[in-house]
Design a protein that fits this description.
The complex is a heterodimer. Chain A is mainly beta. Chain A has no helices and 16 strands. Helices cover about 0% and strands about 60% of the residues of chain A. Chain A has a four-stranded antiparallel β-sheet, with no helix packed on it. Chain A has a four-stranded antiparallel β-sheet with strand order 5-6-7-8, with no helix packed on it. In chain A, strands 9-10-11-12 form a four-stranded antiparallel β-sheet, with no helix packed on it. Chain A starts with 5 loop residues before the first strand and ends with a strand. The radius of gyration of chain B is 14 Å and the shape is elongated. By secondary structure, chain B is mostly beta strands. The two termini of chain B are about 25 Å apart. Chain B has one domain. Classes of the chains: A mainly beta, B mainly beta. At the A-B interface, strand 1 and strand 2 of A face strand 5, strand 6, strand 7 and strand 8 of B.
Chain lengths: ~220, ~110
Amino acid sequence: MNQSPHQIDVTYNVAANKYFAVWRRMWTVGDGDIMGARINPVSGDIVSPPGIIAINTAVNDQKEPRITTNQQHRYLVVWSQVYDPAHCCDWDIHVQELDVGGGLAGSSYGVAMTYNDEESPIAIARPGATRDYMVAWQRAAAGGQRVEALRWGDSSYTVLLDVASASFWNNVHPVLAVGGPFLIAYESDSLGDPTVKSHIFARLYWPHTTYLPVIVK
Amino acid sequence: MQPAVAYNAKEDNYLVVWMYNWSGTSIWNPNRIDGRTVKWDGSSMGSERVIISWPNRSFWTPRVTWNSFHNQYMVVWTAFDTTTGQPHNVAHAILNVYGDTLLKKLSP
C-alpha cells in the first residue's frame, strides 16, 4: 500500500521535542488526503502511538499541505481542497489544528472559500502560548492571480488581507515569516508584457498599525 | 531549483537545501537534494553536501526545519520513480549543524 505519498512539509515543536511531517497521499486517482506523523528527533522513527495520523480524508481532493507550530501546544496544518468532490475545480483553503500529541483539536474549517481557485497555501504561527496565526494563498481572480492572507488567533481580530491584487499581474507562491510583524513575500509578474520579468515582493503586516510594501527586487 | 532554508538561532547561521538537476528538470530525470550551511553574514561554512541521491529516483520539493533542542536539522523530500513518473515515497534526513547527514529514513 504505497498510495504515492508526496508534497511533504515538516516543522519542529520544542515543547514536545518532536518533528511533525505532513504530506499528501492518493486514496484513489483524484482523491488526495492529508496525512501526518510525529517523528522522534533521535531515532528518526515515527512516534507510535499515534503512528500515521489522518489529518483530513474527506472525499474531496486535497493537496499542498503545509504545517507550522506555535512551539507550545498547537500545530496548524493548511491545505487546498476541492469544494465539490463531484467536480475537479474550485480549490479552497482549509486548516486543521492539532495538539502536541498529534490529536485533532476541533474540526477542520475553511479560511478561503470563494468561487475562484485558492491554492499554494502557507501558514505561520507566532511562537508562544497564545494562538496567533496567519495563512496566505494565491487566488485566481479575473485579471490575474492575487495573494491574500488571513490573520486570526486568541487575542486578535480576524483580518483578511489583500496582499497583492493589481490587475494584469500574476502574484503567486506566497511565503510567510513572523518576528514582530508578519512578513508576506511572493512572486509577481506582468500578464502579457514580456519585457517585465518576475520579481519578488513582500509586505509587512504590523497588527493595529501599518501595512506597507517593503521590498522590490 | 526549489530552495528551502531554516535559521539556526544558536549558531546564528542557516541551512539552505535545494534540488540539483544534474540530468534534467522532469520527474523522469534522476536528480538529488543538496545543501550547505551559510553563516549569518552570507559567507560559506563549507562545501555543498549531497543529502540524498538514489538510482531511478527524482527528488523534489525539499523542506527543512531546525531542532532547537538538539541543535540539528530535519530535511524532507518527495521521491519520484523515474521509471514510472509516479511519486514513490516521502522521506527525511537528520543533519548536524555543519550539514552532515546523521541518519536517513527512506519512508514514513
